[in-house]
Amino acid sequence: MRFGHFDDERREYVIDRPDTPLPWINYLGTESYFGIISNTAGGYSFYRDARLRRLTRYRYNNAPFDFGGRYLYLRDAGSGEYWSPTWQPTQTELDEYECRHGLSYTQIASGYKGIKAKVSYFVPLGETLEVWRLQLTNERESAAELSVFSSVEFALWDAQDDATNYQRNFNTGQVEVEDGVIYHKTEYRERRDHFAYFACSEPLAGFDTQREAFLGPYRAWDRPIAVERGTSSDSVAHGWQPHGSHHVRITLEPGESREIGFVLGYWENPKDAKFDPPGSQTINKQTVRPVIERWLQQETVDAGFAALRANWDRLLGTLQVHTPDGDTNRMVNIWNAYQNMVTFNMSRSTSGFETGIGRGMGFRDSNQDLLGFVHMIPERARERILDIAATQLSTGGAYHQYQPLTKRGNNDIGSGFNDDPLWLILGVAAYLKESGDLSILDAPVPYDNEAGSEQPLYDHLQRSLQYTLDRLGPHGLPLIGRADWNDCLNLNCFSDTPGEPFQTTENATGGVAESVFIAGQFVLAAKELAGIAQCVGKPHQEYLDAAEKMAGTIAEHGWDGAWFRRAYDFYGNVIGSASNDEGQIFVEPQGMCIMGGVGVEDGLAVKALASVRERLATPHGVVLQQPAYSSYRLELGEISSYPPGYKENAGIFCHTNPWIMIAEAIVGNGDAAFDYYRRILPSAREAISEVHRCEPYVYAQMIAGKDAPTHGEAKNSWLTGTAAYNFTAISQWILGIRPELTGLRVDPVIPSDWPGFTAVRQFRGATYRISVTRGAVRALSVDGQDFDPAGVLPLAPEGSVVEVNLTVS
After folding, report:
1. Where is the Glycosyl hydrolase 94 catalytic domain (predicted)?
2. Using CA atoms, how far apart are residues 797 and 794, in angstroms rounded to an integer?
3. Portions of the chain given CATH number 2.70.98.40
């Protein structure tokens, strides 16, 4: 069952009914001001940090699920009837409804009793504000007297404090209203540097800034007293719940259309701002007023929206493909690339499933997100790498997360996830391959953001690798620490006395549990660091030797006869082995070890992948492990706390699926690689939206596994490493257009029934026009000249166009 359709020409997903199985969201903003917005205008906005600079309020796990947002109400003065043009929050049965989620913008259109409305939301480039544009048309045969009410509920900046500290918050709310602009200045008294504002382009009939005055006692957002009465009360908030609402009255003649603009924004005073009189608690509006006035002008909004669309033209133009599969085309060319931008900006911090409070930017997460983003804006990837590396500890370890506003490690989450440091090597390698910017390796970067501890980034990479070598367990495999990529596999749980409560060792050195997954990741990272070292003329053989030694250890202690084992627990018991009663085979080491090259030459990789297909593959994707854990096992930690088939307990953790796609491509099996790609491809799952439930235009973190009663149902959409790794799998391995340190490689491993494909790839300033066709003999020509089919394409001069023709057998 479908709830909408793709409009590929306009690069939009069109939702044609408001009652989607879950709120289907989009993201506003690409730089520093962001927001999430659902197909019924739910969501919230923030500046840089969803916890520390939250502008508007949103309540998670609410009923209805999606409540609180960028709401507008229309009221007919003649009948007294009112409704929401975005369906929420009044849920009036509209005569027409359509939501178009585009790239960093959303448009919701509706019709009700002869009044057409279209609301557009977007964040202009270079600004810390969002624009709402309301377009109204009267299709009645008589004039319509309408009232328009806007509505946002201001959050008190720190979202955690906003949701918990009511004894304080009900006394601190403050606003100012001047010339129709509502300024929310709570916190200004103590910080005196930032505030929010909410402005309207039309003369006001009234306003409200106190939530209870707008809603009325004991009422909710579906029937505000101000809207019902058709009159605002001009309330000014002093404590309690600051709110922003404008009231505009208009008369529309038959056939007449009008536009009303709203601007919601964030502003910081310049550091040298003067206050008159000194000590005044009245906010300094002088610098922001020109910005507000400019963005309330229709021509400015038109130009800003056009610039946003043009920017996405440029970004998506970095890679465009045309394959025999339409779903592949729209995901690679539009939606997967778009999701990569969002995950780069958000990491895992804020979505319909992440509140923006508990998680900031992930060390592991952000490095992985670089893989799918780096080709679009390499300079921003460079900046992110340096931010991430600055949170690294001097041991080579890392805080698992850091706050985007402060760029400091999150002590609440801490460190001890022993896979984290190696992801820095993989992230930097991806950046270097794309950009060729070797100068980043000499950039001075502190440890733990401590002044005076600066060392070249290359030193950070060396310490990342050494961190693993310094923490090897009884079998010579890397210690898992608190966990590895699978945060819920907590194997350093132990009891000194049988029958007594278990304890958890969360640091890197206090437990002996080992990870085969990290071992495979180490082999991959060591080889990448060797390539980087060789490229800049530094010693590299030691890294290759370390990789070879670890590969040998995996073969000796990490191979189970038909697949790679997962780990060893605190007691030395093997995990992910045929000898286990449950959890016999895990997907993660099968993918990561093969990506590191382990078992490729001796046939182990092919055996492992056959086991994956036999034991882990389902029509909805590859599950994490089998058999699922049927009961809670203290010695395994959180993984067994989930019911069978969900999340880490045999759910389809979509992030791991592209590792298997890449592994299949490495062993030359294009049919299997593409088969797995299609199983979790959002666009290809659109027809089963009533089962999948999440958005059909972006990847979800997980899909319920075959042991779950809801097999095939997705959860945790948008913010997942699935996005970057699936983009990597399809673009670099299946289509085979792969950046390397010395140039661009074209080495596709495509399905046997494809006659070929074409692609345009921007790479280091040049444009590569690539055509791949089937033939009897593999052959490659570059600008009409024969070239080694196994070679890396030579770097082309900036601005040049390179014609690449590859024949594959």
Report:
1. 312-736
2. 10
3. 4-313
Pair type for strands 455-456 and 493-494: unpaired
Contact 44, 57 (CB under 8 A): yes
pLDDT at 446 over 80: yes
Q: Give me the pLDDT at residue 504, please.
A: 54
* Contact assessment for residue 14 and residue 6, using Cβ atoms and an 8 Å cutoff: yes
The alpha carbon of 432 is separated from its chain's Cα centroid by a whole number of angstroms, namely 22
Average pLDDT over residues 276-298: 82
Give pTM, 2 decimals.
0.96
Which of 361, 362, 382, 368 has the alpha carbon at shortest distance from 434? 382
Give the whole-angstrom CA distance, residue 669 versus residue 496: 48
Beta-carbon-side half-sphere exposure of residue 454 (alpha carbons within 13 Å): 9
Q: What is the pLDDT of residue 403?
A: 86
Choose the catalytic residue: 234, 487, 671, 675. Answer: 487
The SS3 of residue 622 is: strand
SS3 600: coil
pLDDT of residue 493: 77
Distance (Å, rounded) from C-alpha 229 to C-alpha 249? 13
What whole-number distance in Å separates Cα of residue 604 and Cα of residue 612?
12
Contact (Cβ atoms closer than 8 angstroms) between residue 335 and residue 343: no
Q: Is 487 a catalytic residue?
A: yes
CATH code at 471-676? 1.50.10.10
| Residue 263 φ/ψ region, left for φ over 0, alpha for ψ in the -120 to 50 degree band, beta for the rest | beta
Report how far apart the first and last C-alpha atoms of the chain are (Å, whole number).
39
- Span(s) in the chain for CATH 2.60.420.10: 738-808
Topology of the domain covering 4-313: Beta-galactosidase; Chain A, domain 5 (2.70.98)
343 and 718 Cβ atoms separated by less than 8 Å: yes
Exposed (0-12), middle (13-18) or buried (19+): which is 756, by Cβ within 10 Å? middle
pLDDT at 39: 98
In the chain, CATH 1.50.10.10 sits at 471-676
User: Which CATH fold would you assign to the domain 738-808?
Assistant: Maltose phosphorylase, domain 3 (2.60.420)
pLDDT of residue 497: 53
Confidence (pLDDT) at 275: 55
Q: How far apart are CA 108 and CA 20, in angstroms?
A: 14
